[in-house]
Amino acid sequence: MTAAQKTQAPDGASKKSPRELLDSPDFKALVKKRWAVSFGLLAVLFVGYYGFILLVATDKEWVSQTVSSAPGAVVTRAIPLGIAAIALAWVLVAFYVWWANGSYDPEVQRLKDQLKH
Amino acid sequence: MPPSTGAAAAAGDVAASTLGTTSMSAVLFFFLIIAITLVITYWAARKTKTSSEYYAAGRSVSALQNGFALAGDYMSAASFLGISGMVALSGYDGMIYATGWLMGWPALMFLVAEPLRNLGKFTFADVVAFRLRQKPVRIAAAIGGILTVLFYTIAQMVGSGHLIELMFGMKYELAETLVGIVMLAYVLFGGMLATTWVQIIKAVLLLCGVTVLTFLTLRQFNFDPTQLYTKVMELYPPPGGDPLQSALAPGALTKSPIEAVSLGLALMFGLLGLPHILMRFYTVPDAKAARKSVLYATGLIGYFYVIIPIVGFGAAVLLKASVVKGGALTALSGRELITHFDKGGNMAAPLLAELLGGQAFLGFIAAVAFATILAVVAGLTLAGASAYSHDIYVSVIKNGRATEEEQVKVAKITTVVFGVIAVALGILFKDENVAFMVGLAFAIAASANFPALLLSVLWKPFTTMGAVWSIVVGAFSSTTMIVLSPTVWEGVFGFQHAIFPYKNPAIFSMSAAFAAGIVVSLLTPEKDAQLKFEDEKLRTYLGVGAE
Fold it and tell me: Do A101 and B248 touch (CB under 8 A)?
């Protein structure tokens, strides 16, 4: 997206028809960005969650060791890992909302304003 | 061994717990919850006249309210009682299971929440069929939706009937009928608005109840979870001192990595195909509110799954009793006491509630469990009714030409029919092992509903025939593989060797559904669908023209 296209937008003379808006590079960039963010975050979720599942499934030895080596320590590595998986899920959702509110929504509004009524 | 205080105080008699008898406090809390929810239903009924009000609460639900309602729809009695029981009996495996239940929410957010809100009206079939030929896609999607809802409902009804029987000592058939009648009152008169408020109330009560239970448990250990874990290791030392067998290490659940990933996939993508969850996104005003409601729901559900294992471990170490066995007094461990009441471990949380909070608290927890069941079944009924009345009756039989009055009338008739079927199936399957049906519902949702939904939103060359075949292949393959799996083939039919080796078919059936959708679409190009795909983009991404 160039600076020229951006400054052109609020001007009433440059209102676009639905077809023009659909074909505009700005709209295409928005759609592309939306799915790039979504699939990027989904990839992180996959690596985090299935990584956790495969780790507890394949390396029981490692996850069954206690977190601290102090005598009498009982908390296994598996326990904080499980809680971390849950925390990861929420953090990813929160990140998406933060991105969408701060970056996606303003762009959606800007493009909607360009639409002829 | 001297018996502890509370529930299991009386030596020689395990049944010293009041569990299974109808206690005053349980009845009191129960009637209080019913009274409040019926008042709300009365209020909601006056605001529910059009089909959009009936199915979607007039799109007036706020993001926070919807977040609680989504959490309420998702946190069933099975997850509250079942996961705490699983942690109590098998330890860390219950925690692995709990994490899986949350992982669908981020995926739901990234892939479908916003497009679903922008493109649909009442059901997920609206979105699948949006740019395709209406009739075939609607019929297929409605069948996928109804199958999911039906299996989920049977599992809920049978599970809940037994739970109520266990906790209140009420007769099974009476419990089923009572659930059916009260739930129908909500849905029939108050539609989605009443159902939403029932979910919100239930979610708040459930979260409060579990929070108090966790607080009371941790208080026994000076608010230091490590002391709780130390006690677990002390009372349930791993056989032979092998750390790999410890209650705090992964066990049988992840024996096969393929099985574990397949279960994870079913739980994750099953959520994206559950009609009663997807339907909630139409109750909020726009995509932004839909997005926020997922954030709230994920926070609430995540919190629930983080604290639930503490309740489970607490039950395993704090509960104890003595029993007369063959003339001698034998001590029972927490695990033995829990299985004495219910082999599946479902009574761990209620027993712990009685021990730590007395009869009144047990009454509260029992009433909350009952309210949970009512709310979940109400949501399912509304989703099942909309799949038939909106997708089949209005869109296929009437070609989309039905008046408002007619639409609401059909919706209400279908609601009653669905409610009666739910009660009948609940009673019919009373003595059957239906635990696999939740897995079946998730497998069908992940394999039949989700691939078609995602491809329709995302993949331009998707066609009508591609959608139909994807749904059919997904539904058929997941059902067949579950029937041939060890769970059903050996566990239900009692055959020797299962034909299909895995309990969770999602990894295969979901791939098959995607493959069918893609291959059939490429073989049957549909120009019209591709043109509409471009046109609908303004609606999908900008919300222009969304209902």
Answer: no
A92·B106 Cβ contact <8 A: yes
pLDDT given at position B16: 59
- Nearest Cα residue in chain B from A71: B230
Number of domains in chain A: 1
Q: What is the pTM of this model?
A: 0.92
Residues B378-400: pLDDT tens digits? 999 999 999 999 999 999 999 98
For the residues of B29-64, what is the DSSP string, one character each?
HHHHHHHHHHHHHHHHHHT--SHHHHHHGGG---HH
- Contact criterion met (CB < 8 Å) for A85 and B99: yes
Taking phi over 0 as left and psi of -120 to 50 as alpha, with beta for the rest, B494 belongs to left
Q: What is the mean pLDDT of residues A14-40?
A: 93
Which residues in chain B (211-230) have CB-CB distances under 8 A to chain A? 226, 229-230
Rounded to whole angstroms, the Cα distance separating B319 from B14 reads: 11
- Residue A52 within any structural domain of the chain: yes
- Asked if residue A4 is part of any domain, the answer here is no
Domains, chain B, in order of start with CATH, read 6-542 (1.20.1730.10)
User: Whole-angstrom Cα distance, residue B544 to residue A38?
Assistant: 21
List CB contacts (< 8 A) between B542 and chain A: 108, 111-112
Tokens of B95: 């925690």
Residue A91 lies in a domain: yes
Helix axes B464-483, B506-523, angle to 10 degrees: 160
Measured distance CA(B320)–CA(B359) in Å, rounded: 17
A100 with B291: Cβ contact below 8 A: yes
Q: Does some domain include residue A8? A: no
Nearest chain B CA: its distance from A4 CA (Å): 22
Q: Is the minimum CB–CB distance between B248 and chain A shorter than 8 Å? A: yes
pLDDT at B222: 95
**CA distance to B67, B206, B455, B543, per residue, from B291 (Å):** 10, 24, 20, 13
Range of the domain at A95: 17-113
Helix (H), strand (E), coil (C) string for B329-381: EEEECHHHHHHHHCCCCCCHHHHHHHHHHHHHHHHHHHHHHHHHHHHHHHHHH
Best residue of A66, A74, A110 to probe chain B, by most B CBs closer than 10 Å: A74
Encode pLDDT of B209-252 as tens digits: 999 999 999 999 999 999 999 999 999 999 888 888 889 999 88
- The answer to whether residues B171 and B370 touch, using CB atoms and an 8 Å cutoff, is no
What secondary structure letter does DSSP report for A15?
-
